[in-house]
Amino acid sequence: MWRLLRLWRVARADLGLLWYALRHRRRPLWLWPAALVLVFYALDPFNFVVPLLGIVDDLILLPLILHLMLRLLPSDIRAGYLRRSLLNY
Where in the sequence is the domain holding 67, given as residue range(s)? Predict the structure, then answer.
């Protein structure tokens, strides 16, 4: 259970990075389409047909896919987000 909570804590930070990267002027061309696919995957009708598999899907696969997608971002975008988040504290 604690691992799932840790995974979602990382996913929450990843969502902040995704939002920053989507608004960044030097974002990769693949980022917007990948983010849209991720949103549509989260809203997949399969979640409504088989609820248990949908819950497992939302709790485990979505945060992992999001984290992998953001690891492919250029390092200057990730560094800019870290600088910005450290300045806000």
Answer: 2-87
pTM of the model: 0.76
Helix axis angle, 62-71 relative to 31-42, nearest 10°?
180
Return the structure tokens found at 20.
Answer: 């920053």
Q: Structural domain tally of the chain?
A: 1
From first to last of the 89 residues of the chain, give the pLDDT tens digit.
Answer: 566 666 667 777 888 899 999 999 999 999 999 999 988 887 776 666 666 777 777 777 888 889 899 999 999 999 999 888 787 76
SS3 per-residue string spanning 18-82: HHHHHHCCCCCCCHHHHHHHHHHHHCCCHHHHCHHHHHHHHHHHHHHHHHHHHHCCCHHHHHHHH
